[in-house]
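@channel sequence for tomorrow's demo:
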Amino acid sequence: MRSDEALEDVIPRRAGEHDLTSHSEEQGIAEQIVEDLRGTVEALLDEQKRRASDTVHGIAEALQRTAETMHHDNVALAPYADHAAGRVAALAARLREERWSDLATEAEAVARRQPALFVIGAIAAGFIVGRFVTASTAEREDADAASYPLTRAEPDEGSTD
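structure tokens (generated this afternoon):
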């Protein structure tokens, strides 16, 4: 038969009694898990923020090239393209430098103050990013196609072509 000390480990404790050491250990483990999870989520958000910043920076560079072309072809619109390129470049810098929580808080404030402007801006941003991604994908596919030239298949000896 087991001793009283061994039975104490097997028999559940009465309500209100608990081992403070195990409770604090469990709390420490839970806090560590939460901290690890927070670090992982922050790393993922930082990576997404970096990618978004890079994409927006690419759009700013495309706008700047357009503005440079307009200085020769369409002088009247060139200042607007310059201004747009500067604003988009500033947005890319803010995305790179600010924390996600600050950006989300500011976006929420804009959405509350001017919901129509926020929706129009979100649609425009989605359209621009979609066009940019589509153009980048098409350029990449063209480059891939150029690196693998198609060869004409030789007709079979028995074919009548």
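heads up for whoever presents: The chain has a mean pLDDT of 77.
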